[in-house]
């Protein structure tokens, strides 16, 4: 064969391949695999990877223990069921005391939760202080005051973090994903599936159904799957077989021709191709990755953005055109319009909500752990003190008098005694009247308070138990 003939043959082959639409079954298989993950999130469910919450239960428990150890008069002062207490205000009772104002409602809640003796007994039992000796209660009381104040400072930091995650975060995320797939939080049945802006399918209107004139139409992935994965629905040409994945017969799911009621039925048959048995654990990064991948399947042109397998002109399922969705607004000059498509927007909202919750956990996590440690310290101190061995009094030589008991009441009865004799009796000496006197009691409160976390003098109102 001469060179001219070879060149002609090559040119003929090239021309033939270029003009032929190379369409095979499963042309949208890769895209379908990505969408399947989202479908499973909606159908089977998700578990969000974040576990922290804004729960301040440890702080509440500390306030209840602090109130239980307080004097009855102090506790009753915050009983809102009593008429005389209903008009009490921080400004009236504790003028210019910012801590009283800040803690007023906390004290009222703690007082309400410890009003009954049985409630207080339950708190003491939890703190292993039920039936404890007075000395143990006194020591525990000081520790509880300190830990309650530390917890109050942590609580303020936690409350300053914004935004707070929803209490039912997993359900919120689940609902957003369902809205992306079904257009609502419950799938419903075939007859109930009627998304806003949808055009009911008929025998030959696929090109119309799968094209939008705004972002409301084709805003659910159920509708999108009808345009990407079914066969036929066009008035001429050759339909693409099984665009997403071939069924046993090789043709795939047929384009629904019985109106809107047939859309959900067709979707259910397609979903069977990728259904998973269990939930996925997801994070905001998982949703972000998914959206990034799906955006990559958009082909932006001057007239529209095409999602899925697009060849030319329209998305009517014909081999010469494509199995796709035509979003008129998402042109090459306005690619950001993709984020306004309803199913994309719902996934974006799920990502944002989950990311905010994860950020909250990063900030609040260490603080919540500190709060838990405050409670653990306060609620375990009673047991620690009670388990300490009682110091046995040392035996003194017979030639030395026994040291007096720490209870030195009655020292003033020893008259005509000098300082040495009074000291031997365990008493102080009253030089003026030349007799013994009771030892002066010294409080350790101020030293204890100054040692505890370097607390300020304002700790009086925050953690001090009124007597």
UniProtKB/TrEMBL annotation:
Pfam family of the protein (one): VSG_B
Region (Disordered): 396-416
Record's keyword terms, sorted: Cell membrane, Glycoprotein, GPI-anchor, Lipoprotein, Membrane, Signal
Places the protein is found: Cell membrane
GO cellular component: plasma membrane; side of membrane
Coiled coil: none
Membrane topology field: Lipid-anchor; GPI-anchor
Signal peptide coordinates: 1-21
Domain Trypanosome variant surface glycoprotein B-type N-terminal: 11-369
Function, as annotated: VSG forms a coat on the surface of the parasite. The trypanosome evades the immune response of the host by expressing a series of antigenically distinct VSGs from an estimated 1000 VSG genes.
Name the UniProt record assigns to this protein: Variant surface glycoprotein 1162
